[in-house]
Amino acid sequence: MTDRAPQPVDRQLPTEESRDLLALVREIAQREIRPRAAEEEDSGRFPREVFTLLSEAGLLGLPYDGSFGGGEQPYEVYLQVLEELAAARLTVGLGVSVHSLACHGLAGYGSKEQQSAHLPAMLGGGLLGAYCLSEPAAGSDAASLTTKAVREGDEWVITGTKAWITHGGVADFYAVLARTGAPGPKGITAFLVPGDVEGLTAAVPEKKMGMKGSPTAQLHFDGVRVPDSRRIGEEGQGFTIALAALDAGRLGIAACAVGVAQAALDEAVTYALDRKQFGHPIADFQGLRFMLADMATKIEAGRALYLAAARLRDAGKPFSRQAAMAKLFCTDAAMSVTTDAVQILGGYGYTADFPVERLMREAKVLQIVEGTNQIQRMVIARHLAGPETR
User: Fold this and answer.
1) Residue 120: which residues within 8 A CB-CB, separation 6 or more?
2) Known catalytic residue: 370?
């Protein structure tokens, strides 16, 4: 094998603290995550102990307020942490993104009392969260959800089914969107539901093309009772809360996609330098060199796009359009780059002996989750041309 190992990404980070943070993340990824990724994904093992370690290291609450146990890091730093984690194992990188998404509603819309009561454990107390918006018949059309929450005195009774829930069945808390009023987006309210509450059960996890170590399951709410103190925001504000969370979450998916693509490029470059045909490393052949150049360009462009959107968010400026663009471009790029990596490795790329086939399978889901890329195009077009008139 070649002695030319992939070099760390040359990152432009704002502070010495953030540079130290990324160095810590790379160390954890190399020591605790990457070595077991292939074996555990193949066996479908969820690495709960890794998330416990990340919590202890302060990496599960990076973009949130320090007074509640968060890391107070800007989004441009947090997203680069996600990228490094996803490059080591997407189950971990995307899992941290989903956990952050599950904390978003309480951190942004909860009362001070709610935040003081719950956020410290959520951000740094070893807990793991999940986000419950989608349903079997309400995916892209999330505003048509039918899970109901009916008020009885000081409690809400939640009944219905959520679908495609990352961490379903293993999370300690769920951010749940349920219908409390009339049909449409204005009749939806957000709740913080404990994972061990009576009446909440998880179905058998889905059998998926990739990310087999990350449980994705339906959740059944059979008369689940939660106190009104666990309602987040006002009645009917849930869809607004959900959309705000998704804007931020889409940047997380974009960063994860760049991480997966970077991992695939690193594997492809290493292989191309080592593999010899016709008496030369295949990296000497122009056709392949151009493939590598195109792959690297897509990755750099994607990274610049998600960081530009993150900096808008950090500056308190609107970033919804840019988040949709980043999610769209980065996930399409990841699919392209990982497919090319398999091609560069040839027959070996199609085997489980090398990680690029797994990376290609994992890249596909990133074009689907947190709004399909077709939905992202609709979001971008609405910013450009206004809502559809039909």
Assistant:
1) 68, 69
2) yes
DSSP letters for 146-193: --EEEEETTEEEEEEEEEEEETTTT-SEEEEEEE-SSSSGGGEEEEEE
Chain mean pLDDT for the chain: 96
**∠ Cα 16 81 132 (to 5°):** 140
User: Which position among 17, 152, 370, 388 bears the catalytic label?
Assistant: 370
Type and span of the H or E element at 276? strand 276-277
What's the chain's Rg over C-alpha atoms? 21
pLDDT at residue 5, rounded to an integer: 53
Q: Cβ atoms within 10 A of the Cβ of 384, count?
A: 7
Confidence grade of residue 2 (pLDDT, cut at 50, 70, 90): very low
Place of tokens 């160390």: 27
| 3-state SS class at 219 | strand
pLDDT digits (tens, 9 = 90+) for 245-254: 999 999 999 9
Q: Do 255 and 80 contact (CB within 8 A), yes or no?
A: yes
Question: In the numeric block, which tokens belong to residue 64?
Answer: 């949130």
Specify the pairing of strand 276-277 against strand 280-281. Answer: antiparallel
